[in-house]
Design brief:
Mean pLDDT: 95
Radius of gyration: 17 Å
Largest sheet: 7 strands, parallel
Strand order of the largest sheet: 3-2-4-1-5-6-7
Order of helices and strands: HEHEHEHEEHHEHEH
Bound molecules: guanosine-5'-diphosphate, magnesium ion
Number of strands: 7
């Protein structure tokens, strides 16, 4: 048990617990997935589970129904749910509790689905290697400009629901350019969780970078 410093601020406490989580993840590739409610985070994870099976573990912080976890586990991936009690973001302590409940033996990739929100989650390190922002076509193409704090920190951005191109107005080249202005090294994945388009490239990134 690490020593707990006196007079530790909430921010320092989160940073300390995130560092402990990082040790517990033991070198596995860990991603913190952040996006609006309904952008398709769980649907993307369902597709990801179909390809990675038991090599994937999902820490679910945005459970709407009991069905959400089932969508992941039916492919042999592991899933654990976090009770957020209405919080607008996950913190490292919640993730530490989830790690206690999940067997990471044989797992190579861990994805944490954060609470659906583009503002609060981006400021909290959970012990991940990288943050991944999820946006989708019906939300409109101004998201990176409106929420720069997230897109500055996200190593990757998934643009989901590309099956709706031509049905909703969305300038994907503008989104890519805006993302690159905030993070020159960002990886952008254009996917449709509905059709499966682009999912392979995303899963390849999860596995190898
Ligand atoms: N057309 C379309 N709908 C999608 C796609 N991905 C997710 N959806 C739908 O969007 C809604 C929200 O998806 P969900 O995965 O629960 O979003 P989350 O709240 O971000 O986890 C559901 O009705 C999905 O069926 C997609 O690629 N294309
Ligand atoms: Mg979800």
């Amino acid at each position: 048990m690490a020593r707990i410093p006196v007079n530790e601020s909430p921010r320092e406490r989160n940073a300390r617990m995130a560092a402990e989580n990082r040790k517990r993840f033991g070198g596995r590739r860990v991603f913190n997935m952040i996006g609006s409610p309904g952008s398709g985070k769980t649907s993307i994870l369902e597709r990801t589970a179909a390809l990675l099976g038991p090599a994937l573990a999902v820490i679910e912080g945005d459970v709407q129904t009991a069905l959400d976890a089932e969508r992941i586990t039916r492919h042999g991936s592991r899933a654990v749910q976090i009770e957020t009690g209405g919080a607008c973001h996950l913190n490292a302590e919640m993730v530490a509790e989830a790690i206690e409940k999940i067997d990471l033996d044989g797992v190579e990739v861990v994805v944490i689905e954060n609470v659906g929100n583009l503002v609060c989650p981006s400021g909290f390190d959970l012990g991940e290697d990288a943050k991944v922002a999820v946006v989708s076509l019906p939300e409109g193409d101004e998201k990176p400009v409106k929420y720069p704090a997230l897109f500055m920190r996200a190593a990757a951005v998934i643009v989901n629901k590309t099956d709706l191109a031509g049905i909703v107005d969305y300038d994907i080249e503008r989104v890519k350019a805006d993302c690159r202005k905030l993070n020159a090294d960002v990886r952008v994945f254009e996917v449709s969780a509905k059709t499966g388009a682009g999912i392979r490239e995303w899963v390849e990134y999860l596995r190898k970078g």
